Amino acid sequence: MAETATAEPKPRLSPRKRAQRIRIAQYVGLVVVLLVAAFAANWDQIVDVFFNPDDIKMTFEQGLWDALVKTIEYSLGGFVLGLAGGTLLALMRLSSVGPYRWIATAYIEFFRGLPTLIVFMVLSLLPIAFDGLTVPFDPFGVVWLSLGIVGTAYMAETIRGGIEAVPRGQTEAARTLGMTSAQATRKIVLPQAFRTMLPPLTNELILLVKDSSLVYVIGFSAANYDLTKLGRELANTTLNLTPLIVAGVAYLIITLPLSYLVRRLEARTGGANVRRFDH
């Protein structure tokens, strides 16, 4: 009697092969979804509402580049104030003097928990509450101060982490050379700390650029509009979203190069980027 032939079991896929097939299936699924969305969309309506050529041209003519420059000026001013204040608070937080630590901790916790919009609104209304009070460098002063106050709280923690990352031996070596504690901090610790803090500080600048969009709560004249304020005003005038889309693209012109810089700095320093997620 002839022996019955038995089928050989199929070889099992290796984990690498299985992962490749899953990845291919995901790509195919994504392409299918995109094709369905592309064919189902009303492109004439999308172009008319979001990418209207006449409204794009009008947005440029109504001062897009001026608003872009104003956004950069607002952001850089807030960043400079935040960096200076954050450095001071970080040193206070690390101080051996108890009241300094308490004041710094209270400031950081308070303004990290407070929405930036409220800071803008309070500072813009202070002259109403206090007769004769004026914020210097009007109209930039209120924006710089608002962004600087919030940026200080976040940068202080970033700077404190960078200072603590510097080996204590560096400070001890400086003290043995006759430096005071302040000299050691200024000449030895801070220069090394700032090299490792560059990526998270650059990320803070990106966040301040986006926070500058809150300028719309302040009653500025058209000459001082930022990108968001300009986009909102033109969108309300035209009843079309194209100006806001153009303003969003202008923000990307600022933030994308900064994001690329953050990645390059992180790759060079090997440091972890400290981010905040309050928005």
From TrEMBL:
It comes from the Bacteria. Residues 68-262 form the ABC transmembrane type-1 domain. The chain crosses the membrane at residues 24-43, 74-94, 106-130, 142-159, 205-223, 243-262. It is found in: Cell membrane. GO terms for cellular component: ATP-binding cassette (ABC) transporter complex. Belongs to the binding-protein-dependent transport system permease family. It is a multi-pass membrane protein. GO terms for biological process: amino acid transport. It comes from Solicola gregarius. InterPro entries: AA_ABC_transptr_permease_3TM, ArtM/GltK/GlnP/TcyL/YhdX-like, MetI-like, MetI-like_sf. This is Amino acid ABC transporter permease. GO terms for molecular function: transmembrane transporter activity. Pfam families: BPD_transp_1.
